[in-house]
Amino acid sequence: MDVRTAQRLWSLDSVWLNTAQYGIPPNTAHRALAEAMEAWRTATGDPSSWGAAAQDARRRFAALIGSTPDDIAQGTTTSQFMGVIAASLPDGARVVVPEGDFTSAVFPWMAHADRGVEVRVVPLAGLADAIDDATAVVAFSLVQSATGEVAPVEEILGAAARHDALVVTDATQAAGWCPMDATRFDAVVCSAYKWLMAPRGLAYAHLSPRLRDRVRPTGAGPSAAADPMASFYTSRMVLAEGAARFDASPNWFAAVAAAESLRVLQDIGVEAVRAHNLAVANRFRDRLGLPPGDSPIVAVDDPDAGERLRAAGVRAAERGGRVRLAFHLYSTEEDADTAAKALA
User: Fold this and answer.
1) Which fold is adopted by the domain 3-26+269-343?
2) How does pLDDT run across 122-159, given as a tens digit for each residue?
């Protein structure tokens, strides 16, 4: 499916340039969610079908980021997964994070200060240089939420490998448009309600085998068991072999919609999504005389920008004193021109 054909799957009543806050579902995903909600309302729903959709979404997410379903855990938030990893660090461990990163990738490590876990905060550009033999984990967002800046991944991975540090990345602002090979990281954590266009309350994590061996599944319930349906009332704990041992109970309704949104992304292909998103974002940049970028998130430093965009019917976000625009599949050249005209 090409992007132009796919755009017919959306019915927007605004110029939505705010996917970095939450994504808009294709009509197929909204319809699947509405049908599930109606089945819930009328007491005709089948949880097994909702559970099957959750497994389908897991498989599709794995394929999207270059992982395998066995290495994907299903949860609710980015900070939930970060917290489980942080809780397994030894006392006195050092974690390096970039300055200004989203707090879900920072606070879970800082919560362990009382047992000597040290969080060193450095500029993103200097993150790789800050990794040394004392570093246990380097944690960072693949794409910065506030600015759209793409992390220097190659430098970070190289430095982490030289010093045997774990690499944990938050892909919430990247997965869905940014091609990646999750197997190069120890953990890739992602909330699904932004570029994956799912309802809020669903998150995924690629957890590598070497990381899983070090992490304790402190939130284990029946969904983390090798046989969930046989594990509701047992004191014999047999957990799943792969990353599913870190599963939380599935958010059925979010997963029903996510499976459809992920299917659309797969049908188009991440490379094509990236090409479209960057083309529209760079059209907007060009109209404002800004240099081209490598991210569909654009931060504009103008104190009146938010008000002018709202007056033009453009939905964006204000973060850190700047206006942040985010261009995704449903964004058009006309949307970029409308936003640029409002700010010119």
Assistant:
1) Aspartate Aminotransferase, domain 1 (3.90.1150)
2) 999 999 999 999 999 999 999 999 999 999 999 999 99
